[in-house]
Amino acid sequence: MTRASSCVDRVDSLESVSRGGARMEQDASLRPERILDLSERLSSVAGEKIGEIARVNRAAKMLAINALIVAARAGEAGKGFAIVAEEFKKISTEIDAVAAALDSQVRADLDELSAIGGAILGHMRGQRLADLALNAIEIVDRNLYERTCDVRWWATDSAVVACLAESDDTAARRYASERLGVILDAYTVYLDLWICDAKGRVVANGRPGRYPNVIGRSVAEARWFQDGMSTASGDDFVACDIERSHALGDAPVATYATAIRAGGQSKGEVLGVLGVHFDWRPQAQAVVDGVRLTPEERERSRVMLLDQKGRVLASSDNQGVLSEVFPLDVSAGPMGSYADGEITVGYALTPGYETYAGLGWYGCLVQRQQVQTAAVAAA
Fold first, then answer.
1. Of the candidates 196, 192, 320, which has an alpha carbon nearest to the alpha carbon of residue 255?
2. Which domains, and CATH codes, for the chain?
3. Is residue 196 within 8 Å of 222, Cβ to Cβ?
4. What confidence tens digit (pLDDT) does each residue in 188-246 have?
5. Is the pTM of this model over 0.85?
6. Beta bridge partners of 305
7. Is the C-alpha dihedral spanning 36, 40, 46, 47 positive or negative?
8. How far apart, in whole angstroms, are the C-alpha atoms of residue 328 and residue 128?
9. What gap in Å lies between CA 91 and CA 61, rounded to an integer?
């Protein structure tokens, strides 16, 4: 968990993360992969033409040999023809040497070109994946920063404060619940909002109809409650890693909390804690699904959000969420890429946003190499 201070203007949420994906389509002739396509095509053509030279030259040699045989049979009359045939044979031998040298040099240069092209392409692909990973985690950071603003703002709401200031006031708690319901109607990214007294008992929530077993529940042992009670002022907040909430239908949530203080004052007496439960799954899925990949790239790519230990928090293929630990190699630093066999991995560490420092999460893209077909090579 982390704490931060201060709250500034709100930022855009995740609803528009997928806009512009279609604009990623590129002219096929400008793709970086075209470098390797052309080098492979040139290598094929060069090998084919050098082979044709060798075949024609072998035929010429056979003609020269046949001419020498005929000249020998003709005796004195064939001596002049024999000289020409012998010279033609020497020229054929020289052509063989030139063709062999050409084949050796061209293939060496083409191999080097392919190696350089592959290295450049690998770097470009890795850098692009890392950039996309950074963009994804930045979207998450900006959105979660907004959650820290929400919880600190709503903790000062008069209905929320009155709910705890007036002990066991059923009417005040009912009104607070209604007030939280109005907030939830406007902020659809939350599953529920909980008001907890100083002992850790939930006394009001925003969706009692959907979650009827929340009221009276003890959250005294929850870290978000304990740390929320310990916040130094109304400027502080608590941010939690993603966890499944049994009380909210086992949905994965990101919980944010802060103390509710007497009079709604920043330094007032702590009366309890407000916990807001961010509906993680659909919001995170919008981020990983909205990464700007072409349809062809999307077929061979996996986009993930990972926590500080590599646990999969969201995945574009919906596999391993909250159960798989991805072995991300971050030895290149906070942002980088690397190749692992037939795949390229690009990643970026959360940079945080404004007063939200982040929780050490990563954006990560894993992409298989594009399959080169004969039709592509011949294009």
1. 192
2. 147-280 (3.30.450.20)
3. no
4. 999 999 999 999 999 999 999 999 999 999 999 999 999 999 999 999 999 999 999 99
5. no
6. 314, 363
7. positive
8. 17
9. 9
